[in-house]
Amino acid sequence: MGLEKLREDIREDSENKAAQIIAQARSTAREEESKAEAEAKAIVARALGEAQETSKEQFRMVSGARLRARKIIASARDAVVQRSMDSLLESLREIASSGKPSESGRYAKAFAALAKKAVKEVGPGAVLYCRRQDEALGQKIARVAGSIDCIGGAIAESADGLVRADNTFEAIAEEQADRLRAKAHGEIFGTKGKARRAHAGNAQEKPKGRKPILRGHSKKGGNKTQK
Question: Domains plus CATH for the chain?
């Protein structure tokens, strides 16, 4: 074999081997690239999954914290309202128990005003329900049809029982609950406007076909003794 032929074979062989090496390298590179891409996608997917789980957990934690915060605020607000109501009722008890009822006493004057207003709201023929110890005061205003368990004040009712005006101390105090709740929001939590808007938005019409109640919601204790 001549020198030129030898050189040609070496060149051809080297080129072939080089081509094989290059082809193999390219194939290996593609495989490695595919593996790398697959692994990268898997890593991204895991990362996204973990991020989503973390986000969900964080969302649950934040939502739970917000719910607990709302409950704490609501409880604090209700506690303030309850303390205010307790204080108000205690003051009313003191008024109602201030000495024996007499026309010149503080409670007697308050009772007369409440009873007269209730009778006026009900209309002609109204009868009164009040504490047993207040019956003498009540008889000066209208016929006392029975006694009720309450702190003070009176309930006027039409003869047929369809119309009722509750002017007991408890009913008057209950009327203040929403105002006290709004006050608690405004002064303690800084949400006076929101509380009022929420209260207005939650207001509902009274169901039709029920006994009209001019004031209050019930006779305290639910017991009245007919005469």
Answer: 83-226 (3.30.2320.30)
